[in-house]
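Severity: low
Component: inverse-folding endpoint
Summary: output formatting inconsistent between runs
Steps to reproduce: submit the following structure tokens with default settings.
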């Protein structure tokens, strides 16, 4: 009876079990699981790896000895893929559970099978190791997705048919589109509501009421690949064309802060974006550290940390919400940080239009991938975001780019030593 209760093939939904074939009809090489938040993607990935390591049909005819586990960060590998409530340690029975060695970032099963953890922040760490299978989690939000994915493909070279499973909430990236178009990819989809039995009713009711039917809800709850809004100021293909690895020496760097009116749960986030201007007059977006639920002292500390990290020249802070309080809380963290106060006198769309024009002219670059920021940019139309929420990341970006190129001090950058 215990074995029946823990038999995944009995309890799994059809979308959580390996497909028989790829889109082109042949055996699949990539299994792409697109799902909403809490749709059971992690459980499906962990059970697939478990089946491979133990050599259990329909996952594998014999144990797979070498498996890669790849997430955005090593913390995600550990806390979600391995130690999470639906992770690898949780889905095994006690008599078959692998031994987790955190310092070596690896799981080892009693039969000798090994799964090694890797971070998408370090694609080069995948240069050298080789595998027969890989589980990639939340690929759509990796900052270095293309480089990490490419390095992994060179390492998938063991066994008769190396395979990879990708579990992710979709975002319309170039890589995800390419995988969807590949005939060797098998695709399954799941909605958050499909996993209602395992979710708190209050959570499901709350998110469906707030986001059901919206573009954000269709992406984050229904697992749909949402394309750009027709009236959006930015498009994803245009942003992809402006992406760069690294950046040239910068003459001026600013940190922009768009503070929230409140730190209570559910309030707006504090927009925090850092950008720099090079000697050719091009803007390079360097970081998006936007966060929600921060008290004034906390977001001020984050702003100062970002200022120090990039050796910025200035903090630009919108003061519509807090007036002199904004300058004061930053001074409490570090009174030497120069703060330029800016006040919004026009609507968000009107403020964003000149910045969008600079993007169209190719005068702004993204030094890396900023998934959440780019989601807001490509969902921002004449009536704001489709979710109705405040575009906090975009607001901070607009203030940063405006200060560097369109503001009163933009024409006098300080020349930095190389």
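Observed output (run 2 of 3):
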């Amino acid at each position: 009876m215990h074995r029946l209760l823990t038999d995944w093939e009995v309890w799994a939904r059809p979308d959580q079990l390996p497909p028989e074939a790829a889109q082109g009809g042949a055996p699949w090489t990539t299994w792409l699981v697109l799902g909403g938040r809490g749709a059971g993607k992690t459980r499906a990935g962990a059970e697939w790896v478990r089946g491979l390591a133990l050599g259990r049909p329909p996952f594998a005819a014999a144990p797979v000895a070498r498996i890669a586990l790849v997430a955005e960060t090593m913390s995600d590998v550990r806390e979600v893929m391995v130690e999470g409530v639906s992770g690898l340690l949780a889905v095994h029975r006690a008599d078959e559970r692998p031994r987790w060695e955190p310092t070596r970032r690896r799981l080892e099963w009693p039969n000798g099978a090994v799964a090694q953890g890797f971070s998408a922040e370090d694609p080069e760490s995948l240069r050298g190791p080789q595998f027969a299978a890989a589980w990639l989690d939340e690929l759509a939000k990796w900052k270095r997705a293309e480089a990490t994915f490419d390095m992994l493909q060179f390492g998938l070279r063991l066994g008769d048919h190396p395979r990879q499973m990708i579990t992710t909430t979709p975002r319309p990236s170039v890589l995800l589109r390419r995988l969807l178009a590949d005939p060797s990819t098998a695709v399954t989809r799941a909605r958050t509501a499909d996993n209602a039995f395992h979710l708190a009713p209050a959570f499901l009711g709350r998110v469906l009421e707030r986001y059901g039917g919206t573009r954000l809800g269709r992406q984050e709850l229904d697992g749909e690949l949402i394309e750009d809004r027709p009236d959006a100021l930015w498009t994803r293909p245009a942003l992809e064309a402006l992406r760069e690895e690294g950046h040239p020496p910068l003459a001026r760097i600013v940190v922009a802060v768009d503070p929230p009116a409140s730190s209570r749960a559910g309030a707006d986030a504090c927009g925090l974006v850092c950008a720099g201007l090079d000697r050719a007059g091009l803007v390079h977006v360097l970081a998006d550290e936007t966060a929600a639920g921060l008290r004034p002292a906390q977001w001020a500390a984050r702003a100062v940390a970002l200022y120090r990290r990039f050796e910025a020249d200035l903090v630009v802070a919108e003061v519509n919400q807090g007036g002199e309080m904004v300058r004061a809380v930053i001074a409490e963290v570090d009174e030497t940080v120069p703060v330029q106060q800016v006040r919004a006198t026009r609507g968000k769309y009107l403020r964003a239009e000149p910045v969008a024009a600079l993007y169209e002219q190719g005068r702004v670059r993204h030094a890396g991938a900023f998934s959440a920021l780019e989601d807001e940019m490509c969902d921002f139309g004449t009536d704001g975001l489709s979710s109705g929420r405040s575009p906090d990341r975009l607001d901070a970006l607009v203030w940063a780019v405006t200060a560097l190129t369109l503001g009163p001090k933009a024409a006098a950058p300080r020349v930095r030593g190389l």
